[in-house]
Amino acid sequence: MLTLDRVTSGYDAVIVLRDLSLSVSGGEVLCLMGRNGAGKTTILRTIMGLVRPRSGQIRLDGRRLDTQPAHGIARAGIGYVPQGRRLFGDLSVAQNLTIGLMARDRPQRTRETVLQLFPRLRERLNQPARTLSGGEQQMLAIGRALCMEPKVLLLDEPSEGLQPSMIALIRDTIDALRRTGVATILVEQRVDTALAVADRIGFVAGGRIAECHPASDLGPDSEAFHRHVGV
Amino acid sequence: MDFGPFLLLAVMEGLVSAAVLALTASGLSLVFGIMRVVNVAHGEFFMLGAVLAWFVSQFVPGPAALSFALALILCPLVVGLLAAIADWAVLKRLNYEPEATIVATIGILYILQQAALSLFGPDARPVPAPVDFRVQLPWFGYAGYKLVVVAAAAMILTLLWVVLSRSRAGLIMRATQEDRDMARAFGINVDRVYAGVFALGAALAAMAAVLVVPITQAHYLMGGDPLLLSFITVIIGGLGSLRGTLIAAIVIGLTDGIVSTFFAPTLARIVATLAVALILVVRPQGLFGRTAP
């Protein structure tokens, strides 16, 4: 289980997250929604150690993460798919996957599992990542993170700018991960995707989780979406 | 001597300059490309390599080839270790901020230079070449050791290319070069990569110095020229582009050799500096560099 306990963090003089607490268990999908600038991306970057928390604690299965460097957090079992994918564009598809596999004990088996999940990548293994289509790049970004065999996967707006068939593939992937016991924190702007894949939906406002509801209690017209997402 | 043989001599001299420059500048290019650090102390790592080679030649008994071979292994290791310590003690603490590291490496430059003056003295000192033979061409004889320098530099650069393009360490360096934060997010210890790259860059400069010191002699102020020429090479080739650096080193080295032989070394420097000015106006990212996204 990943827990954030009263975490405060931000950039230079700007505080973005204020005493934020949340938790997500194995096999659970927590979707974070909120307006632009609410702090959703900062939550993920703080968990990854790319933004250092100023106070509070972050724990994975009881082990402190907030005291570790970013590379130690990744190796502890947190996989990250950032907004805009941020692939290593000059490296090939195979090399991007290799970067993800470096920390693992059984890289060949993990690589095969990822390529079975995204067969399109197998056809593009020697192609530079920057030459892939948007959908293929997102497959690679998710595949690269899965190569880390994460206990918790952080997905920052994975459906942004993708066609419906790709969005459906991403939903299926999240469902498949849920069945394998991977916890997922998904930052998402699309209400339909959030309702389709999330177990719980947390609404971020003012640097905190303002409300959190089981997805089954919400519908497309729920007041919470109007209040926090503006739809 | 006729024009043809004179030109051949100039090209051969240029190849020696190009080989040494390619080694030195590739170290500077690696450090800038991966760490985004403009290492003003790079020339002093070159100087340290030459000075240490002199110490090895003085204190290791036996034939010159033995002490030279030892210097070629030992000096880059010692200089690389010093660079890694400088990275840990100074650059890492400045969080590799570009402006701060320029000032810091200027400080490192003076510390190394004055330390060399104190321990080595102000005089230029010769280091014996490991081999002494002449290649007799129909028009002139040529020092065989200079051809050894070209061959050795080509071998080291080929090895560097293989490491960067084929090895796991090279893959890690290239990933870190592209996106430092993402490298961290995928379990790469970026601090260790930076220390290794800074050490490798300095070691390449030291290797170049050990190779060339039997031709030029060791002196505590000898770091200035290699630094200037390396910057010129890296700017013309494209900041952070190793391929561009190698091609620019060959062009500049050959130009340096030809202009120095036919006219004067000072004119060769003027030509190189004018070429940088022209490149900065016409193609600021260099011949093989990329514009910022």
Biggest sheet architecture of chain A: 6 strands, mixed
Total beta strand runs of chain B:
2
Number of separate structural domains of chain B: 1
Structural class of chain A: alpha/beta
CATH topology of chain B: ABC transporter involved in vitamin B12 uptake, BtuC
Q: Look at the structure and give the mean pLDDT of chain B.
A: 93
Secondary-structure element string of chain B: HHHHEEHHHHHHH
Radius of gyration of chain A: 17 Å
**End-to-end distance of chain B, in Å?**
53 Å
Keywords:
heterodimer, A: 231 residues, alpha/beta, Rossmann fold, six-stranded mixed beta sheet, B: 293 residues, mainly alpha, ABC transporter involved in vitamin B12 uptake, BtuC, ATP binding (chain A), amino-acid transport (chain A), ABC_transporter-like_ATP-bd (chain A), transport (chain A)
